[in-house]
Amino acid sequence: MHEAHEALETYSKKDPVKVRFKAVGSAPIMKQNFYRITASNRFQAVIQFLRRELGWKAGDPLFTYINLAFSPAPDDTVSNLFKSFATDGHLIVNYSTTAAWG
Amino acid sequence: MSTPRHAPSAFSTPASTTLFRRLTWEGTVPLEVRVDSKELPANSDRGLECYYIQAPRVSYLPLLVPEIKRFLMDVVFDEAAARLIKEEDWWFESEEGHLLKWHWPIGLIYDNHTIMSSARLNSSATEPAPLRLILHLASPPTEKLLLSPSTEACKQAFMGQLKEADFLRWGNTKRMTGLRKAEQDGLWEGIKEHNFEEYWRVASKITPTTTPMRSHSPPPSSSASMHTRPPSADPGSNPGPDRDGAYNVRSVPVRIYLPDGPVLQDLVPTMLDDGVAHTLSIFLTTHLPLLFSSDREPLAYALVQGVMVPPEAEMAWLGACMAGADGWVNVCIGLIREENLRFR
Description:
- The complex is a heterodimer.
- By secondary structure, chain A is of the alpha+beta class.
- Helix content of chain A is about 25%, strand content about 25%.
- Chain A has a single domain, classed as Ubiquitin-like (UB roll), CATH 3.10.20.90.
- Chain A is built from three helices and four strands, in the order αββαβαβ.
- Chain A has a four-stranded mixed β-sheet.
- Chain B is an alpha+beta fold.
- In chain B, about 35% of the residues lie in helices and about 15% in strands.
- Chain B has twelve helices and nine strands.
- Chain B has helices at about 15-25, 60-75, 80-85, 105-120, 140-145, 150-170, 175, 180-190, 195-205, 280-285, 315-320, 340; strands at about 30-35, 50-55, 90-95, 130-135, 255, 265, 300-305, 305-310, 330-335.
- The interface of A and B includes residues 6 and 73 of A.
């Protein structure tokens, strides 16, 4: 049982992952687009991070998508999204003020 | 034996595919719902505050709320308390204090609880038992819940998961976005009404299918050549019979759930470089080599829809036949108890 628990410990990834934010439509473009985000972060944390960088309040509409295709579940981790959907070594997160592909 | 050739549709997939899809759909888990005793309003009938549900694995907690509310109003609460019920403040916890997610299918919540128990050093061998849920009526921890309890939010999350699965399989979401709004809504309606036909009427358009050519039943000796005939050369087959086939996807949508997390997700090709089909066994030794090593007995077991799937099951087949209604194959990993290891 201890060996199994030790094995489980190794499956939490900590290395940061490269994320590229891309504005959609009339959403403002950020000064810096590429960020390194801790792999174990939930997507919810990425959304909050984006809000802070854009200077938007909690109530302001903010819609996020991966590869212009879908909105991840808030508890999908950046690591998992990166492994499944990264292109050219980074995960593309699109952001918009209106629901586009929802 | 001649294999019938039909136009692709939910009703002409091989009988075994439909069978497993129906078995998955009909799977249920026992839940025991009990209001937190500290929150039971005064004058509640305390002898009756437990509600038992045999809930569909493919359903969601927000869809159970109306039924639970009716019970509480009819049986437990008095009139004054009933008037104060605010479903939007409801939230569920397991007995162990683990917060339950609104957007997780109920079957996943149940299996995740099973594997969490398996990793607890002091828990005894468990028989299938009702998952005991504590219902809280106020002060939801919204930060951690990530989603409001409304059925609308749950539906949006469900649609999002279908799109993510679609994108993983094909590199685009054309099959999902190609559905009319009424059809997309029909998927959720099928879940709400728990209607297999209603759900699969639409799901068959977006879910990869196994085709007669991919059936693994042994051929009678007279048609031994059937296996060597490539699909495109078969005169009776449909144009591009495997175009939407389970083995043609870029990646099967699969997630691994470990006791106490994390949740792992990665690309899962249907075939491997050496032309071998990607089986559950290979998948587990690749992603969890310390738990599933090829040169020793495994330290863990894998559950899909609550079942210990045989290790030779192919990932492509699991994606077509045993995925949840949201398109995802959820593999829950439990630890094998010391005492059981000895007898394997």
